[in-house]
């Protein structure tokens, strides 16, 4: 390797790049107690601008790490979208308003906007509380990996070596550090050095659509300045995205084709004042002025590409913008990035702890590359719609308000992130699905309010399944006041946690660190006794819930119905990332065994081997 | 005054006693920027035990100071009450469960339990953020006040002098400080030195009921250990109050009349083990054991008394246990105390700022002494019910489950604090009430979800009226898309905030520091434009709301209906403590003028006088 005075070190996971994907990864791994380092070549985090939209599903994910409260406190919320089209007298007129989010099951039925630097701070502060900091400015200069199959299959080996250079002492002879890592995550952006070094190609194309973006606090009489607006004006298309405080982001379509020269943007052709002038014209007859400083502005061409591979030997991964680029129109960028590493965190942790086979990591590319491809397909339709002219008398082929609104709402499951559906694999097993006929294996567990049996306090079920790297085994226990049902539950309890039970075989006596068991009765709140359940289903009084309506209030009592679970009950296995992995009846214990055995390492077998 | 080396100092408000009443007062005054000091003779805050129940209304009040989040995070919630009575086979059996809180309009329909020390910490940390600390151990040793009527009527004078002694240097010659105060608040507990020095008598009596209290973590198969339980057992009455963590408080009735000797408790007659033995017997056939340390325990006789006066010349006030003692059975103690000073904070601030006449302070005793008397009357009925034996075959005169449950629910408005209703006075003016026929002038503004007009984000109306010492003027504007209604609104805006408008006369051009104006349209969320309102009703885009249902969700859209406001609109004036002071139609501006003029000082008159 180049350079002198190379220091050697070892780490379980080295993350390259401290944007949203890298920080999500570093925070999640450190929360799980994994030995992790994160480096970034930039001297500081993003000060302004960049990505800013957090989708409903991403808020749920952040909540599963205990980070949503701060996001919700600091961010702006988009509940309503307004649609403007050419009016009869030349300017624009409001054609209608519609919900900004159309995903019925969203726990947070709105988008949140907050500048990328503030979102990064949420992760940075969480990491800081555990002593983890981003090392910067530090860049990778070399990346090597073993081809030895035995080494690659051994999760305790360090088959990857990265040479890191500290950029803060440019004038001196560069000091290099050789880091030996079990795993490397390249979250180093659209121009990813890791991706290029691995030789993965970006597949896809670039459009001809050019947009300008400006963040500022405007002065206006436009009544929808705090709603998301899609404006099809005779003077060009425009999008309004209100931000935290009084800030507003304007996306402004540029029709001057001279801005693109030989497939690249010529930024010298237009300045920010000209962008604002276009915005002024687009909003007429409303008045919009820009008396305040411009916080950030840029130009971009929409490019839609996905990397050919996301992983090298399940030892080096790429995530975030390094894997996929697309238009910012539907606000997907930062969301897709954070959800990439959310998918990876628990899998790396399971393998590093020796709980799961290293092959589990194959599901990262399998799940996230397919998602990225779907995202690009969606983005093509969606951004074309935004970039097309509105229908007018002169332009009868333009898009109508009805077409636009229909598309906007059809795409709701996608734009919200709620509809993400992972295809069948070892960790997504749709067999036996009928026991909870309205849950979709491969999708995230939808929200429901349950009452805690011991004290009738309401809880959101999503808050019971935090991203703590444990699989959650939800025992929908049926009527726990019924003696026959109690017998079935005691049998299940014995098969799971009794002598030679499945959980004991899988994870040993301390299986509580691998699995979290939560029980949900459907007895009435007046009759339920948490003391009626088998001991392993109530390791603490707070682990038993009932599906009943609040003591004072209207929420709750819909879990069995909306999940499609009968009075016989069901077992629902939720992956550590909140996605449903398996559903089965409470008498079908073998299928639980088969599910976990397909990717987990039997601890009882290991003990046998060790002795 | 006694002692040597007396230092002299001046302060606007001196608070004596740093329990819940004193800390609420100190925190509220410091939040308002008032020059305040607080002293306490104890060397540290309460470590365990004592009061622990926070009622629904008190949670609303804490929320108005921004303090409820932490309470809710740290505290335990009581949603359900369970009732046990003698069963057929000798032990107890559950007769039923019922909501713990029966106040329909409660925003937080549950009680919260948390030990007094943790509640005090919430105030202490809030005060600390503004540099205010409790001076301790510091005791008052002398209290003098001026009898000069001119001085008493001048809000800028210091008519009270308190000699303070620092108890931390007992061995030395006592160092005294002579503090000259504009106002003194004695929040120094049931044995109040301030009250005794003022010569105010405690009026009322003591009962013969003796109870023991124990805080510990029990080991039990009793299924309602996390609910509030009223247990009428053949072996004596018992109450279960679950607390934070796994802690439980048990109230145990003692029937051994020898514990009272000459009207005083003889604590030597019973120890904690004997108390626990009574609890074990009362809960049979359920098992309850006490393997963990006892956090706190005590014995008490129920005494029910109210001080003859709460104020000396509106310059020295007493608050909290210094004014009223009663049984802890309905968990009122700490709540009544904090609400005493919540009532006083804004009045002191208004007078100190020169906004209101000093006579405003008369309403403190007027409102809070009547409340204390009502509390005692309620407590007599309620605690007698708890101390009476259950009806059994041997004891046919005992109280039945039905009688008990009916009383429990009838008292809901009182036990929850939601029903507090201040009688008419300068600041509670029920004339014109019909414009909002279902609001009750003198009660707190009931919760409602509104949508913010500019972005359809839902807000709880109570969060729009924080305890920031400003009067809130709620303009229920009707249909703001209607041109006729707009005209009426522009007229109102002119009469309030135009040249020579009422608010200008009352408070000058910067009336926004005295009054906060919030507008509530009832246009649909699809049509409402915040830009349609007069400028003074939308000093920022975030000040306009509409009464509509959430974009995604079922809350909202009920404010006009549940407040009894017609499409013509109404003006609702909410006092700085959240209680409704006045309701009127939007064309009846004179009545707004009359309301404020009855206790506020016209700033335009002052300016005239100054010039």
TrEMBL record, chains A, B:
Residues 11-378 form the FAD-binding domain. InterPro entries: FAD-bd, FAD/NAD-bd_sf, Phe_hydrox_C_dim_dom, PHOX_C_sf, RIFMO-like, Thioredoxin-like_sf. CDD domains: PHOX_C. Residues 420-603 form the Phenol hydroxylase-like C-terminal dimerisation domain. It comes from the Eukaryota. GO terms for molecular function: FAD binding; oxidoreductase activity, acting on paired donors, with incorporation or reduction of molecular oxygen, NAD(P)H as one donor, and incorporation of one atom of oxygen. Keywords: FAD, Flavoprotein, Oxidoreductase. Belongs to the PheA/TfdB FAD monooxygenase family. This is FAD binding domain-containing protein.
């Amino acid at each position: 390797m180049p350079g002198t005075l190379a220091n050697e070190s070892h780490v379980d996971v080295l993350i390259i790049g401290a944007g949203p994907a890298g920080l999500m990864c570093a925070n999640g791994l450190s929360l799980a107690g994994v030995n992790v380092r994160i480096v970034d070549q930039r001297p500081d985090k993003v000060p302004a601008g960049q990505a800013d939209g957090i989708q409903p599903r991403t808020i749920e994910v952040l909540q599963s790490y205990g980070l949503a409260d701060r996001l919700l406190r600091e961010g702006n919320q988009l509940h309503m979208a307004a649609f403007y089209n050419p009016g009869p007298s030349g300017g624009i007129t409001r054609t209608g308003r519609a919900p900004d989010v159309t995903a019925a099951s969203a726990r947070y039925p709105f988008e949140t906007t907050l500048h990328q630097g503030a979102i990064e701070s949420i992760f940075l502060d969480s990491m800081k509380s555990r002593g983890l900091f981003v090392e910067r400015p530090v860049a990778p200069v070399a990346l090597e990996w073993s081809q030895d199959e035995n080494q690659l299959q051994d999760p305790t080996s360090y088959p990857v070596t990265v040479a890191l250079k500290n950029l803060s002492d440019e004038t001196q002879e560069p000091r290099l550090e050789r880091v030996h890592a079990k795993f490397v995550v390249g979250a180093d952006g659209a121009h990813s050095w890791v991706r290029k070094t691995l030789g993965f190609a970006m597949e896809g194309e670039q459009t001809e659509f050019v947009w300008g973006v400006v963040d500022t606090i405007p002065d206006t009489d436009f009544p929808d300045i705090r709603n998301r607006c899609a404006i099809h004006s005779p003077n060009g298309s425009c999008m309004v995205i209100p931000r935290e405080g009084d800030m507003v982001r304007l996306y402004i379509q540029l029709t001057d084709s001279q801005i693109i020269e030989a497939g690249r943007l010529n930024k010298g052709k237009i300045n920010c004042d000209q962008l604002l002038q276009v915005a002024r014209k687009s909003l007429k007859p409303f008045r919009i002025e820009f008396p305040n400083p411009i916080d950030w502005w840029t130009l971009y061409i929409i490019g839609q590409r996905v990397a050919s591979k996301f992983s090298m030997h399940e030892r080096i991964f790429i995530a975030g913008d390094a894997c996929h680029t697309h238009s910012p129109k539907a606000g997907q960028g930062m969301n897709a990035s954070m959800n990439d590493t959310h998918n990876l965190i628990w899998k790396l942790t399971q393998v590093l702890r020796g709980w799961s086979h290293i092959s589990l990591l194959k599901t990262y590319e399998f799940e996230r590359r397919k998602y990225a491809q779907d995202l690009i397909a969606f983005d093509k339709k969606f951004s074309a719609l935004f970039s097309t002219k509105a229908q007018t008398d002169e332009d009868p082929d333009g898009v109508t308000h009805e077409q636009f609104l229909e598309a906007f709402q059809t795409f709701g499951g996608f734009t919200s992130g709620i509809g993400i559906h992972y295809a069948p694999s070892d960790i997504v097993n749709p067999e036996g699905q009928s026991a909870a006929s309205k849950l979709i294996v491969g999708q995230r567990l939808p929200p429901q309010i349950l009452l805690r049996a011991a004290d009738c306090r309401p809880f959101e079920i999503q808050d019971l399944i935090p991203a703590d790297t444990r699989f959650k085994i939800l025992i929908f226990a049926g009527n726990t006041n019924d003696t026959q049902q109690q017998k079935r539950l005691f049998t299940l309890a014995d098969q799971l946690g009794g002598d030679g039970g499945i959980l004991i075989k899988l994870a040993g006596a301390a299986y509580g660190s691998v699995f979290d068991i939560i029980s949900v009765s459907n007895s009435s709140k007046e009759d339920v006794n948490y003391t009626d359940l088998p001991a392993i289903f109530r390791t603490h009084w707070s682990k038993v819930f009932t599906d009943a309506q609040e003591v004072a209030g209207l929420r709750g009592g819909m879990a069995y119905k909306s999940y499609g679970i009968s009075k016989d009950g069901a077992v629902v296995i939720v992956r550590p990332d909140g996605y449903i992995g398996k559903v089965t009846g409470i008498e079908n214990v073998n299928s639980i065994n088969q599910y976990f055995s397909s990717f987990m390492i039997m601890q009882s077998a290991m003990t046998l081997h060790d002795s």
